[in-house]
Amino acid sequence: xxxxxxxxxxxxxxxxxxxxxxxxxxxxxxxxxxxxxxxxxxxxxxxxxxxxxxxxxxxxxxxxxxxxxxxxxxxxxxxxxxxxxxxxxxxxxxxxxxxxxxxxxxxxxxxxxxxxxxxxxxxxxxxxxxxxxxxxxxxxxxxxxxxxxxxxxxxxxxxxxxxxxxxxxxxxxxxxxxxxxxxxxxxxxxxxxxxxxxxxxxxxxxxxxxxxxxxxxxxxxxxxxxxxxxxxxxxxxxxxxxxxxxxxxxxxxxxxxxxxxxxxxxxxxxxxxxxxxxxxxxxxxxxxxxxxxxxxxxxx
Length: 300
What we know:
Blueprint: H1 16-32, E1 37-47, H2 48-53, E2 60-66, E3 69-76, H3 78-89, H4 105-125, E4 139-144, H5 147-153, E5 158-167, E6 174-182, H6 200-205, E7 211-213, H7 221-225, E8 243-247, E9 250-260, E10 263-268
């Protein structure tokens, strides 16, 4: 007898909050063997100055760089900082509340393994969530004295700040880990399909020959046959303004004969009236006219 087997249900999509909780607990356990739990996750977006102005006091701030450019910061409060220090020096988190003191270079150095692991876990764990791509392999940089110095190195724009409230597992101690990283602009929308090809570029790139006609002289065949080299022909009424521009026998308009940079030049006197749609067929082998801009320079 054949059994009907129901296919397994697809795995539930992970939420951003759960992804951040898992990232923090994994980072602490794998980097410095610190067992902790995440009690709460909050997320906010806004202008840099607004978010920096609401940072908690006493945070240890570490700048984050991508390709040598500052993109944000990561921070620990005094309790989280002390727990990271204690578990690496004493092997456990002390039950006593951390004393208030100035952040030192040793604090930053001992916290770096946990913070680097936290960034890596957040980047990997938030893939497929709305936070996907927010963290992209930033490197820990220098320690920042405070929010003012952070504002000096970070560029203006929209940022996201994530706060993780940590249960440090000893005497009810709680700490705070914080990520503040610039939001990336949305990608440019891709064309659903490439734009249709047109003939405009090939047509406009086709060669065109402009002919400057100074005068047309009608002669009887006998007179044309009698023309000789060096003979001077009279052109009654012809001036430098008598030139006509033509393409394939089509009159485009008047021009004026002159000079530019020691060479003969033409100045177009009026808009060239015929358009491509007005020109008759030029026959096989003839290309459409691409008219050049006005040429400056003429005798005064």
